[in-house]
Design a protein that fits this description.
Layout: H1 3-11, E1 13-17, H2 25-35, E2 39-43, H3 49-59, E3 64-68, H4 73-81, E4 86-88, H5 94-103, E5 106-108, E6 110-111, H6 114-122, E7 127-130, H7 138-145, E8 153-157, H8 165-169, E9 174-179, H9 185-189, H10 193-208
Parallel strand pairs: 1-2, 1-9, 2-3, 3-4, 4-5, 6-7, 7-8, 8-9
Length: about 210
């Protein structure tokens, strides 16, 4: 296990952020920090990702930044040079995974089948993203694969919210949950960062109850 995984395990929640305006990362970062969660996965779903990563890494040097929806080795290099410390993919792309391994960059590949789990284990990866979690069977799926793949630990993403967060994080095979319920697009675009801070605090309170 590396220090990046250790950090993710300590946070337990990874806010997944999609931005249209890279400048929004500043008040958003401040809102997350105020709530007690200085971590974010900035997705490459929009053209704002690179500028947002660069801006966040300059503005918040202690903020723990990752890059999500990584689909190519080229995006890995761009994200890493822009300040991302870990990569997250929606699926298992061997080329992207192998590129990260070669570069010694932490990657959490997305998967939802036993075959993909075996591809990860073959490369020495035991910490993976389970996506889309709810649509792929949720906790029953994780429990079902625990017997043959007991070393694997999952970051559940997709359909996670305040209502099911406790159930997921109470499962011993889940090391973290990713989601956007705290940082929804409409909250960011409307400038409702106070609500984001409140939702973060509420989510952290759920963790304390586990």
């Amino acid at each position: 296990m590396n220090e990046i995984i250790d950090k993710l395990k300590s946070f337990r929640i990874v806010p997944i952020i999609t931005l249209e305006d890279p400048g929004d990362i500043v008040p958003l970062g401040e809102a997350l920090i105020s709530g007690g969660l200085p971590i974010a996965e900035i997705t490459f779903r929009t053209g704002a990702a690179v500028d947002a990563l660069k801006l966040a890494s300059r503005k918040f040097p202690d903020f723990f930044l990752g890059a999500g929806t990584i689909l190519s080795a080229e995006q890995v290099d761009i994200a890493f040079s822009s300040g991302a410390r870990f990569m997250v993919t929606p699926g298992f792309n061997p080329r992207v995974v192998d590129h990260c391994i070669k570069k010694k960059i932490t990657i959490i590949p997305g998967l939802n089948t036993p075959t993909q789990i075996e591809q990860a284990l073959e490369r020495g990866i035991e910490y993976v993203k389970f996506f889309p979690a709810e649509a792929s069977g949720g906790i029953p799926f994780i429990n079902a694969v625990a017997a043959p793949y007991g070393r694997v630990r999952f970051m559940a993403t997709g359909g996670i919210n305040a209502g099911n967060l406790k159930n997921y994080l109470s499962n011993k095979y889940i090391f973290a949950c990713g989601g956007s319920w705290m940082v929804r697009k409409e909250l960011i675009e409307s400038g409702n960062f106070a609500k984001i801070t409140r939702l973060v605090k509420e989510s952290l309170e759920i963790i304390r109850m586990i």
